[in-house]
Each structure stands twice: as structure tokens, then as C-alpha cells.
């Protein structure tokens, strides 16, 4: 099997033959698209509210901060940069660019369908978190929680189906709320943070390195799908400088800002005696200082600010399903996905954030790794779609996913002792995907490249 073009344009699937690059006239500076959109992802309170749960008690403040910085660097340089540059250079969306790694037919499933399907997992997390906090704010019971899960998921799916212009209308000013809450928390507790001491014995808990690895696992797992979606963000970038600066500000700086502030607030609240070592959520720390009325307003505001994210997940899912299943009515495909989201939310499975982030990291870690290897091996350019199912990509993904999902398998009692522990599993999954794809590529385990006339090569 070689990389030479061996097929005529007529042999391209319709979705590839009709794909048109985003022209340069439609692109804009990084500070108008990539940076604010990615920053909005990390301003979501579900991300930063409990980041301290990944190691503040065991390793202390500085290992937690180091873990956040390391995770931010990994997210930008490993998971985002190559996909973002591919999007910028081709002007084509993820489900097209991914065909060089997974094949012209395989790309419909990976990353096309998988990206859409996992968005309903995110919708479930968003619905669970929003319903939980609204219920607590209004002092409701289980009935209110279930009703809110349904209303939230259905409402977000409806807006997502309507189109990106409707998603944008609900997303313009709401991110200001979580930013203001983070600043309030820093003012209240930041001064006491550096006097905090971990509550668990370092020797027994694994200490600083364990804390760093836990933080990296949490953050990278959260970011993995957004890293692959960097292709779509890249299509709106004018040049490589836009791609890089958008990542520096929207990913690297945004992760450090939001996560470090949250950890400082929890550490400061513990050091000052406002909360004990069992409390990991920043919002719980705020509850000890703010008046009940103001705290309720804060929680309602944070919840409302998360609604655009739920709409955006639904929008991505709808677009993915329209592409990979064009003959299926989007109301049906998105409707089924929304039901799954509701089920994940009401049963509480969506609230097990380490497991959710672990599965997402295991799924998209090897995708980002294989795509990065493909980009570098083709001279930092897009080769074009490969025929059928490209085995290099599929073998790389399968092995990477297996390694990445191992920590989740530990929860199965019969497998707990048989499955080795994998630290920072989403990162290891990325490395496995990268290495396996590179090996397969070098030894020729790949399908031929198809000719694609409507493309640009920047």
C-alpha cells in the first residue's frame, strides 16, 4: 500500500466530493473566534468547580498548580495544535480532515459519528450539573431534579437543531458570570491559600507526583474532544500565527486562570477554617461567605451561563449526524441522543466526572495522537483522504483506546486486579495512538490517497 494517488475524483464519497474549503475572506483574527470560544469552554463551572478534587488533599497547593500548568501545555501542544493547523491549512472540517487518518469511509465513523455521539455525553453532564445546582438553589426534591434534567436537555437540543446563529444569541454575555464568580472567590479566599497544608499523608497518598498526574488526567480528559475540534476552529484562522495565539490564550491561559483560581479558593477556604478537607467544590467554599440570597443568585447565574455549552454540544451532534447519516431525519437522531443524555443525567452517571472524562480522553486521545502523527509524517500538510478504512488509523485508535480506558475498567470488580494501573491515561492513549500510527504508516499499513480536486494546500 502506498501514499500515491490511485483513484479518480469520481470515486470519492459524495460528502468528500462536495466539501468546499472555507475561503480566506471568511476568516478572522484569533481574538474574535478561537480564543473566546475555547475560553468559554473552560469558564464552564462544571470544569473548574471541582478541579481541586483531583489532588489538593493529597499533594498540596503547589503540586496542584504544577499539574494544571502541565495539563494546559499538553492540551495546547499535543491535543490542539496539529488539528488546528490542519484546519487552517485545508479550510476543511474535522469529518473531512479525519479521512486522511481513518479513511474516506472510516472517517464517517471516526471521528465523525463518535464526535457527535460523545456530545450527548456532554449534554448529559451539563443537564445533570445544571439540574443539581438549580434544585439545591431552590430547595427542591428529586421530582424537580428529574424535571429540570428533561427541560434542560430538550431545550438545548432544540436550540442546537435550530442552528449556530441561535446558539450564538444565548452565548454572548453569559460567560461574564463565571469569570465574575472566580474573581469573587479569589478576593475572599486567595490571601489564605498559600498557608494551606494537605490533609492526607503524602507517603500514604502518593504525594506530589500522584497529584500532578490526577490533575493532568482530569483536565486532559475534559479537553480531548475540543482538541480534535481544533480542526473546525482552524478553518476560521487566517494563518498559523492565529492558530497558535488562539490556543495560547483560549486554551493554555484559560485553563491556568480558571483552574488555578478554583484551587486557590478551595485551599484558602480550608486554610482559614471555612471548610474542612472533605469539601472540594469552590462553590461550597463561597457558600460560607456569601449571604444565602446572593449565593442563590450566583448559583442560578452559573447554571444559566452553562446553557450555551449545552446548546453547542447539541449543535455539534446535529451537524455530525446530518453528515454521517444524511437520510435520517435530524429530529430522530438528535431526539434519540437527547433521551440518552436525559438517562445519563437522571441516573447520576453523568455526575461521575472522572469516569466521564476518562472515557472521553480514552476515545479522543488516540484520535488526536494519530492525526498529529499523520500531519507530521506528511510533511506538516494534509495528505488528502485515504481510500476506505485506513488500517493505520484504526489500529492506532483501538490500541490507544484500550490503554486509555483501563482506569475505568478498574471499577469492574472481576477486572480490578487483572488490569494494570495507567497514570494520566488520556495522555498515554495519545502517545499510543501517535506511535502505533507512525509505525503502521512507515511499514505501509495504509490505504492509497484519493484525488480530491476541491482543496487548498497552505
UniProtKB/TrEMBL annotation:
Coiled coil regions, renumbered to chain: none
Transmembrane segments: 30-48, 60-82, 94-123, 143-161, 173-196, 208-234, 246-273, 293-318, 330-350, 356-377, 389-407, 427-445
A GO molecular-function annotation: cytosine transmembrane transporter activity
Keywords attached to this entry: Membrane, Transmembrane, Transmembrane helix
Keyword Iron-sulfur: no
Domain of life per record: Bacteria
One GO location term (cellular component): plasma membrane
InterPro entries found in the cross-reference section: CodB
Protein name stated in the entry: Cytosine permease
The organism of origin for this protein: Paludisphaera borealis
Amino acid at each position: 500500500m502506498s501514499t500515491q494517488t490511485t483513484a479518480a475524483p469520481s470515486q470519492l464519497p459524495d460528502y468528500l466530493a462536495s466539501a468546499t474549503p472555507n475561503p480566506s475572506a471568511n476568516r478572522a483574527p484569533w481574538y474574535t473566534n478561537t480564543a473566546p470560544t475555547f475560553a468559554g469552554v473552560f469558564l464552564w463551572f462544571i470544569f473548574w468547580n471541582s478541579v481541586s478534587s483531583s489532588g489538593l488533599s493529597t499533594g498540596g497547593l503547589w503540586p496542584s498548580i504544577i499539574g494544571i500548568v502541565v495539563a494546559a501545555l499538553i492540551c495546547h501542544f499535543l491535543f490542539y495544535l496539529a488539528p488546528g493547523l490542519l484546519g487552517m491549512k485545508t479550510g476543511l472540517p474535522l469529518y473531512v480532515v479525519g479521512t486522511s487518518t481513518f479513511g474516506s469511509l472510516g472517517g464517517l465513523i471516526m471521528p465523525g459519528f463518535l464526535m457527535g455521539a460523545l456530545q450527548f455525553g456532554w449534554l448529559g453532564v451539563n443537564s445533570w450539573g445544571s439540574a443539581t445546582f438549580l434544585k439545591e438553589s431552590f430547595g427542591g426534591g428529586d421530582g424537580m431534579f428529574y424535571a429540570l434534567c428533561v427541560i434542560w436537555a430538550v431545550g438545548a437540543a432544540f436550540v442546537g437543531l435550530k442552528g449556530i446563529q441561535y446558539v450564538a444569541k444565548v452565548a454572548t454575555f453569559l460567560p461574564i458570570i463565571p469569570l465574575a464568580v472566580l474573581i469573587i472567590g479569589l478576593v475572599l479566599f486567595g490571601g489564605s491559600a498559600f498557608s494551606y497544608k494537605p490533609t492526607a499523608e503524602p507517603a500514604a497518598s502518593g504525594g506530589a507526583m500522584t497529584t500532578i498526574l490526577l490533575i493532568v488526567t482530569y483536565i486532559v480528559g475534559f479537553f480531548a474532544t475540543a482538541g480534535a475540534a481544533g480542526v473546525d476552529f482552524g478553518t476560521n484562522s487566517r494563518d498559523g500565527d492565529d492558530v497558535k495565539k488562539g490556543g495560547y490564550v483560549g486554551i493554555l491561559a484559560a485553563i491556568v486562570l480558571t483552574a488555578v483560581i478554583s484551587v486557590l479558593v478551595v485551599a484558602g477556604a480550608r486554610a482559614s477554617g471555612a471548610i474542612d478537607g472533605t469539601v472540594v467544590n469552590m462553590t461550597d467554599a463561597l457558600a460560607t461567605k456569601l449571604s444565602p440570597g446572593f449565593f442563590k443568585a450566583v448559583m442560578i447565574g452559573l447554571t444559566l451561563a452553562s446553557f450555551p455549552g449545552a446548546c453547542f454540544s447539541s449543535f455539534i451532534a446535529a451537524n455530525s449526524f446530518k453528515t454521517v447519516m444524511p437520510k435520517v431525519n435530524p429530529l430522530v437522531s438528535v431526539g434519540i441522543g437527547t433521551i440518552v443524555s436525559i438517562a445519563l443525567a437522571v441516573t447520576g452517571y453523568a455526575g461521575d466526572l472522572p469516569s466521564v472524562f476518562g472515557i472521553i480522553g480514552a476515545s479522543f486521545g488516540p484520535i488526536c495522537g494519530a492525526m498529529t502523527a499523520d500531519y507530521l509524517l506528511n510533511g506538516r500538510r494534509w495528505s488528502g483522504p485515504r481510500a476506505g478504512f485506513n488500517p493505520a488509523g484504526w489500529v492506532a485508535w483501538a490500541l490507544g483506546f484500550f490503554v486509555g480506558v483501563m482506569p475505568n475498567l478498574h471499577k469492574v470488580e472481576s477486572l480490578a486486579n487483572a488490569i494494570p494501573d495507567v497514570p494520566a491515561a488520556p495522555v498515554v492513549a495519545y502517545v499510543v495512538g501517535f506511535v502505533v500510527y507512525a509505525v503502521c504508516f512507515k511499514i505501509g499499513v495504509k490505504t492509497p490517497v484519493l484525488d480530491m480536486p476541491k482543496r487548498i494546500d497552505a
